[in-house]
Amino acid sequence: MARLVEEEGANHGRLVRVPAGAVLLEGNLSRPERSSGIVLFAHGSGSGRHSPRNRAVAKALNAGDLATLLFDLLTPQEEAVDSATGRLRFDINLLADRLVAVADWLTEGPEARGLPLGLFGASTGAAAALTAAARRPQVVRAVVSRGGRPDLAGPALARVLAPTLLIVGERDASVLPLNREAQKRLRGKSALEIVPQATHLFEEPGALEKVAALARDWFLRHLSGPIEVSPDSRAPGPRPGQ
Question: In order of start, what are the domains of the chain with their CATH numbers?
Answer without folding.
Answer: 3-226 (3.40.50.1820)
